């Protein structure tokens, strides 16, 4: 089976899942932590070398304070859980603001190795697509390597995006890296993650025709 080199993850539906269970909305993100580590381990076992998680966006900052804090806390806990695995972590997002959690600042300057390393994990925290692309306006489009001006320039092209929650959109997720990505939509909400979600997505991806516009 042909595997992607890089998978993007949009773990959506946390609030809707919590409401459906009669829980407070903020509990949705708490229940989304274990699925993240389980998915990471499955991706690692499958032999996919790189994965990017959509965590906290600049648009999320417009939500009520209690929800915003719940998402940020989940990001911090997620990194703590990942630190006990074999991984290489890089966090990308606007870090020079009070909205960015100070506990995650050490992971924004360079990729950090946990355990024996191996699988690369990119985590988008306080990320916004306009912030990411802003420097491109100042670049000379005729010069090679213009995309190095992206704030997310250390994250390579994505082959497969998996989105939970049933919505068919990118929601600002790495627009440049996602330009040729195949998108697999899962109707179930993220806290209801099952291992077969990943296997189904990988099987589906292996059957796609990859032309990159050619």
What does this structure look like?
The chain has 214 residues and is an alpha/beta fold. It has a single domain (6-134, 155-206), classed as Decaprenyl diphosphate synthase-like (Undecaprenyl pyrophosphate synthetase), CATH 3.40.1180. Helix content is 28%, strand content 19%. The chain contains 6 helices and 7 strands; from the N terminus they run E-H-H-H-E-H-E-E-E-H-E-E-H. The protein has helices at residues 14-20, 27-30, 33-46, 65-82, 129-133, 195-206, and strands at 6-10, 50-57, 87-92, 112-114, 119-127, 160-164, 182-186. The longest helix has 18 residues, at 65-82. The chain is globular and about 55 Å long.
What is the secondary structure topology, with strand pairs?
Layout: E1 6-10, H1 14-20, H2 27-30, H3 33-46, E2 50-57, H4 65-82, E3 87-92, E4 112-114, E5 119-127, H5 129-133, E6 160-164, E7 182-186, H6 195-206
Parallel strand pairs: 1-2, 1-6, 2-5, 3-5, 6-7
Antiparallel strand pairs: 3-4
Helix pairs in contact: 3-4
Order of neighbouring strands in the sheet with most strands: 4-3-5-2-1-6-7
Based on helices, strands and strand pairing, what is the structural class? alpha/beta
Strand content: 15-25%
Task: Tally the beta strands.
Answer: 7
Average of pLDDT: 94
Q: What is the number of independent domains? A: 1
Overall helicity: 25-40%
Distance between the termini: 22 Å
Largest sheet features: 7 strands, mixed
Parts with pLDDT < 50 across at least 5 consecutive residues: none
- Discrete helix count: 6
